[in-house]
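Let us work through a complete example step by step.
Step 1: write down the sequence.
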Amino acid sequence: MWIWKKSNGNLGGRVNGSNSGSLAVYFDNCNSMTTPASLVLYEDPIQLNTIGNNNEEESKEMKSSSKTTTGSFQKDEILNSILPPKVWENNEGNKFMQYASKELATRLEVIRVQELLDSRLAERQARDKDICPVREDLYQQCFDELIRQVTLNQPERGLLLLRVRDEARMTVDAYKTLYDSSIVFGIRKQLQAEQGMSDMEEEIKALEEECKSRHTQVLELQNKVTIMEKREIEIRSLLEKKRKDEISFLKYQGQNLDKFLKSVSG
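Step 2: predict the structure and record it as tokens.
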């Protein structure tokens, strides 16, 4: 696991013949210490306590020396407030603390940070596009390292960058909250729709049955109308035939009466 540390000959050494500045070293099994990897440059770990031993005096001396190695006390306090020290415990129960490095950054160290960022992105298989927690975490570490470098040169500018970082994180967190709430809202609406689906299906079935019954009623009424029209036509034809027969009978009777009258008068 790779971490940035200050080179002092204890856990580091020379890289490519260079013994100045900061460098990336690998903790194999130094006192069984384990610390999360970070792109931020940290000083040597300070052992806070040891199981079975009370090393308070040594811890106090190491803390005081770590705070006063470089720069003024005020600058150290600002840097520690921006980048709080890391505290962790190893498998043996020993607690360790690491403060952010107070060493000024050089152009070579900035290039190393960039190379380490690229290697970490490739090592952890971060995605180039879309949402990627791995890429987000590594770029946050890189931005914290830039804030550390800027704070050592000008604390006011570092505090301003801290405000920018916090505002960016708040914005991202707000978008995450909005995304989570939208997902919850969508799931709730989907559950409500699924719960009301059975009622809707029953209502659709009832309406379909009612539509079928109404259609049957329409067919029955149409048949009745057809039958009534046929009966009306038959009745009308019978009445017309009867009327014609009566008219023809009356005409015949009138003709016979005319003949009878003529025969009587003649």
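Step 3: interpret the result. The chain has a mean pLDDT of 77.
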